Amino acid sequence: MKKILVINGPNINMLGVREVDIYGAKTYNDLKKYIKDTAKNLHLKVKIYQSNYEGDLVTKIQKARGKFDGIIINAGAYTHQSIAILDALKSVNLRTIEVHLSNIYEREEFRKNSFISKIAEKTIVGLGFLGYKSALECFCEE
Length: 142
Description:
The chain has 142 residues and is α/β, with parallel strands linked by helices. Helix 3 (54-64) packs parallel to helix 4 (83-92). The longest helix is centred in the N-terminal third of the chain and has 14 residues, at 28-41. Helix content is 34%, strand content 19%. The protein has a single domain (3-138), classed as Dehydroquinase, class II (Rossmann fold). The protein has a 5-stranded parallel sheet, sandwiched between helices.
C-alpha cells in the first residue's frame, strides 16, 4: 500500500472561518476526514500534517525521504515565496503533487507565481476538496 504525506501550510487550519466566500464553510477537520476517507477508498495510506511555520514544513518534507511514496502539498502563502520549501522538495526526490483549494491563477497577481509548481509533476487548482482527491488518484496511476 502506497504511503502519501499530505502537507498543508499556513492558515489552512482556518478553513470554515477564513474567507468563506473563497474557501467555503467546511472546516479543516472536514478536509482531514475527506482526505482520509478518500485515501482509504483508493487503498492508499495517508499522513496529514499542517503547520503555520515554514521551517516545520521543510523539516517534515525532509523526514519524508525513504518513508513515503509521494507528497501532496498545499503550501498556502508559502507557495508564492518559499524557496526553502522548493529546495526541500527537490532534495527528497519524491513524486509531488501541488494542490490549491482556490484557483490561484484567477486571484491576486502575486498568487500567480508558484515556486512549488517548478518541482511538482502536477498542479491542481480551484477544485476545493476534490483537488485532494484528484491528487491522491495520481498515486494510483503508474
